[in-house]
Each structure stands twice: as C-alpha cells, then as structure tokens.
Amino acid sequence: MVNPARPFEMVVCLLALALGLAAWFPSNAFPRTAEGYLGPALFPKLLAVVLVLASLTLLYRNLRQAGLGPSFALLAWPNLLRIGGILLALLLAPWALGKLGLLGSAGLLVLLSCLLLGARWLEALLTALFMVGFVYLVFVQMLKVPL
After folding, report:
1. Under a CB-based contact definition with an 8 Å cutoff, are residues 68 and 6 in contact?
2. How far apart, in whole angstroms, are the C-alpha atoms of residue 85 and residue 110?
3. Whole-number Å distance between alpha carbons of 34 and 46
4. Contact between residue 109 and residue 93 where contact means Cβ atoms under 8 Å apart
5. CA distances from 13 to 3, 9, 31, 58, 116 (A)
6. Using one digit for the tens of pLDDT, what is the confidence trace for 1-29?
7. CA dist., res. 34 & res. 136, Å (int)
C-alpha cells in the first residue's frame, strides 16, 4: 500500500535536517564563558543536535519501510490549502506577537497548525496549552528569561 504522506514526510525530514545544521553553525559565534564552557551557545546547540538526530532517524525509517512508494497526494488541493494556511499563519505571527505576546501568539500558532493538519479540537487545544505551559515553565520560571 502506498503511503500518501511519504513525500511530505521526506520534505519535512530534509527541512528539519537543514534547520538543525543551520542552527548549529551560527551558535559557534556566541561568546564563551571565562571558564571555557559553552554559555549562551549551549541551548541552541542542544536543540540543533536533537533536531538533526530526530530528522535523521525519521529519514532512515522512511527510506527503510517496505511497501511505501512515492505519491503526489501532497499536491492535491486540500493539502496545498492546508500548507498555505500554515504559511499564512507564520506570516501573520509577527503581527500576533505584538498583540498577544510571545506565549499567546505561539499558542495560537500551534493551535491553528494542529487544526489545519487535521487534529481534533481537543487534541489541538491540549497540544497548544501544553506547549505554552512548557515554554512558560522552562523559560520564565526556570531560566528566568523575560518573555
């Protein structure tokens, strides 16, 4: 059976791999602490490593699965409209950032993206709330980063 999501997954894997590599190299320019520790570069490097490893794992899994052939279902109108909706939401994110703040605009973006990708309302809402809570807990409470 042909998996209609396979070409889309391959594109997403390659984009995630490129994004991970793109995050790694600029973080080398961040200043180091006096003791030689990574300092501000640590968090972007950790995210880059996780992103590269996850994308390579998914890419390997996608290439090794038997019975999956190429499909162009990604180019069907409903899928193009979903992708266009997500891109439009990303383009409107800076406007929402000024109106709703970082947590509000990020939560709204996650909610809209989940809904456009076919998640049910409850799943999308719980995902957005979890993401907002996680970002608040890690960055505001633990790392003391003002958002």
Report:
1. yes
2. 12
3. 20
4. yes
5. 16, 6, 30, 7, 19
6. 445 556 667 777 788 888 888 888 888 77
7. 29
Residue 82 to residue 121: CA distance in whole angstroms: 16
Residue 135 is encoded by which pair of tokens? 């970002």
| Tokens representing residue 88 in the block | 């439009």
- C-alpha 22/C-alpha 140 separation (Å) is 26
| The amino acid at 134 | F
Q: What is the pLDDT of residues 24-73, one digit of tens each?
A: 888 877 777 777 666 777 778 888 898 889 888 888 887 776 555 555 56
106/53 Cα distance (integer angstroms): 24
